[in-house]
Ammonium transporter
Amino acid sequence: MAENQTGFVFPAGLALDNSTPPWHSKADSGWQLTAATMVGLQSVPGLVILYGSMVKKKWAINSAFMALYAFAAVLLCWVLWAHHMSFGTDELTHILGKPGLALSEKALLDQQVSYKIPVADFVYFQFAFAAITVILLAGSLLGRMSFYAWMWFVPLWVTFSYTVGAYTVWSQKGFQKFGINIIDYAGGFVIHLSSGVAGFTAAYWVGPRHSHDRQNSPPNNIIQVLGGAGFLWMGWTGFNGGAPFSAGLTTSLAILNTHLCTATSLFVWLAMDMIFYEKSSVIGAVQGMITGLVCITPAAGVVESWAAMLMGTMSGSIPWYTMMVLHRRYAFFQKVDDTLAVFHTHAVAGTLGGLMSGILAKPHLLDILYGEGTYNPGLLYSLLQGRPSEGFTQLRNQLIGVAFITAWNVLFTSLICILISRIVNLRMAEEELEIGDNAVHGEEAYALWGDGERLQVRLQMPPRFPSICRCLV
């Protein structure tokens, strides 16, 4: 039991909280926990449902399971070493923090620098960002990457690729230390460009799907695709709304801009499909939704709403063109089997959003969010104010971000895939590719006859780890 100053006795569970330190904002902390959970729901169940429905029936379990496993694996990596590599105060190199545990009660309950929330809030939110990045990347690899290779890939990629992007772009010890301030409000570069480029690169090393799957790969449940897409869209309220780490002045603007850009992008993509193909495609509408969400992410809290709609118009048309026209014309794109077109929806849309941030970012909003004079204004406003050099400098910084994130992910994703290929096969065996989930996991997504019985198929399967055997010889 607990007693207040009036002498009234509270039950123990209702005792007044006298342990809250002066720096702690319950409103900010509560919103941050909510936002982080919304980002988590984008992955589990959002992308679990989306991936499991977008692929052929025979790959529903494997695709959904890749997302579920990645979510769990990233959390362990994050608290054991990756969080400090991304946001730690101890520098390992100019582009990476020193690994360390994010498990200490004292540290987790202390104040996160510059914010009115505990460190634990920050760790949780950034974990959700890291997890969805790897899961987005998985969209390029569905339907043929060995699950055992994926189990190796997730921790290695988070450790050697994601952490570098987060440290260089977001940490004050990264590019900012050299005066290169890159506008990336909530991860257009760190999350979407990196996942799109890394997914495309990994798809090259893993190789294409079974020829029949690649030529004929209809979604197994379009209604569930819409359900997963709904989790993704509404979860982006927390994705972009949580980026300021407070329930502050620009938070609601960022959320409104997010939905405006997304709705505009979906409408434009749908219009393009109807004009050129005379069909209103549901899958096309989902792709337009995703490119709108991605495009606004680096700019959501630093642009006006008219600019968000302009970005939506561009994200509904430019990625549509690269996916529907350029992809079919050039052998470079045809050579790589990017299952869910993650390169176009994330790398192209993320780059577009990052560059438009360097053009449309409003000085007043930048000052509110980052502090006065921290970032140069967008090129449009610098021209209007008669200071074009500042705008061109910011646009140059955005281009540096694109170049670095792209080059790093191509290089290290390739190295990771090569390393894993020396341990286990990157690609499933041909027998597994032909049958799908039943051969890989011994399970099927849907019971289509009888009482859930399965047709017994006897296969002479190859050894699970032939590469290990080679290494041991």
Remarks:
- Confidence is low (pLDDT under 50) at residues 1-10, 463-473.
- The beta strands are 2-3, 9-10, 91-93, 96-97.
